[in-house]
Amino acid sequence: MNPLNADQFATNAVKVVNKNTMGGLDFDWEYLGAPGIPGILPGQTSDALNDLVFLNSGVMLASKSAVVKIFKVLDYIVHMSYDLHGQ
């Protein structure tokens, strides 16, 4: 994902939450392009770099200092890390 698109997505997500007085958002990310998973379309080879950047950002988010910052603004989080390698 283009970093500018990611920033715009985050901005728009916050606007939707605030406008609709929602308690939060739930994102469910499935392994991209894994063959044999019903309902998951195969990814494109060109997506590989974007996937790598996305997964690396997750590693960066998992650092202790980042987690401390995240919990200053969130009151509830569930991080599920299974299925990172597909089936």
TrEMBL record:
GO biological process per UniProt: carbohydrate metabolic process
PROSITE patterns per UniProt: GH18_2
Keyword terms of this UniProt record: Chitin-binding, Virulence
Domain GH18 residues, every copy: 1-87
Tree of life domain: Eukaryota
MF (Gene Ontology): chitin binding
InterPro entries (UniProt xref): GH, Glyco_hydro18_cat, LysM12-like
PANTHER family: CHITINASE, V CHITINASE, PUTATIVE (AFU_ORTHOLOGUE AFUA_6G13720)-RELATED
Protein name per the record: GH18 domain-containing protein
